[in-house]
Design a protein that fits this description.
It is a single chain. This protein is mainly alpha-helical. The protein folds into two domains: about 1-125, Four Helix Bundle (Hemerythrin (Met), subunit A), CATH 1.20.120; about 125-270, Helix Hairpins (Orthogonal Bundle), CATH 1.10.287. The chain has 13 helices and no strands. The chain has helices at about 15-20, 25-45, 50, 55-80, 90-100, 110-115, 120-125, 125-140, 140-165, 170-175, 175-185, 190-200, 205-270.
Length: about 270
């Protein structure tokens, strides 16, 4: 997804003014306020006993917010036209608003419940949130490699634990699936001391298996995930800085060109 708003070069007249209005801070802050208001109404709709007789007011506010989102998208489509779909964030907004327009039929109630996804539109508006999401997407290939290594560690650990402790503790390590689930609970640090002590009561040397497995999976792999995400965020921030530098150079070049043309015009006017 691109972090920059879909450009519309060549616009002039009213469309240029509308584009400046759409990309202005006031309009962006207004949309953020509407998103937060809509999130509050959707949350209150889940507590009818608290809202009481004001439920119809919440429905009205929800429809008004949806109408604002539809008008916003319609205006953007009119201004940017086919360039609107060049931005992944515009696709994101388009799909979320489209889901909200699904009729409230019984068979589509699950889709109607996804109206709360409108809250995620705030991600496409605030640049800092966009950077976080884009860094996460950029980190997916590296995270995939870490997940593959983690899966291999789990399979090896599950086979070893099934061989060693399957007969004495079939409820935990009786099958490969049971071992995988038990080792997953160990990795999450959820009650693993109780499991380890129970196994060590029969196998005193079981600590030599559980502690290395826990250190490798819960700490080393977690740090690898963090490192990949941090590296992706730094790369995203570096690319944005480079884009800003390019824009600044272009602006400076345009200013120099205009100054030179103005000097040439002034010099021509001074000639008799």
């Amino acid at each position: 997804m691109s972090t920059t708003e879909t450009g519309a070069p060549g616009l002039s007249g009213p469309l240029a003014g509308v584009r400046r209005f759409l990309e202005g801070d006031r309009f962006q802050n207004f949309i953020i306020a509407v998103i937060l208001l809509n999130a509050a109404t959707l949350a209150l709709e889940t507590a009818p006993q608290t809202v009481g007789g004001y439920m119809h007011v919440l429905h009205v506010i929800d429809n008004v917010c949806l109408g604002i989102f539809v008008v916003e998208l319609a205006v953007k489509l009119a201004v940017y036209r086919h360039r609107f779909f060049f931005s992944g964030w515009n696709w994101f907004d388009f799909i979320i608003v489209g889901i909200s327009l699904v009729p409230a039929a019984a068979s589509l109630s699950a889709l109607r419940a996804l109206r709360i996804l409108r809250v995620l539109r705030i991600v496409s508006i605030i640049p800092s949130l966009r950077r976080v999401v884009e860094a996460g997407i950029r980190a997916l290939p590296g995270m995939g490699s870490i997940v593959l290594v983690l899966m291999m560690l789990f399979v090896v650990g599950a086979v070893v634990s099934t061989k060693l402790y399957g007969e004495t503790f079939p409820q935990y390590f009786g099958t490969l699936g049971d071992s995988l689930f038990s080792l997953f609970t160990v990795m999450t640090l959820e009650g693993w001391p109780d499991l380890a002590r129970e196994v060590m009561a029969v196998h005193p040397n079981a600590w030599a298996f559980f502690i290395p497995f826990l250190v490798i999976t819960a700490f080393m792999v977690l740090n690898l995930f963090i490192g990949v995400i941090v590296a992706a965020m730094e790369e995203t921030a570096s690319e944005e800085e480079q884009k800003l530098e390019v824009v600044e150079r272009e602006l400076n070049a345009n200013l120099l060109t205009e100054l030179r043309s103005l000097r040439a015009e002034i010099a021509a006017l001074k000639k008799p």
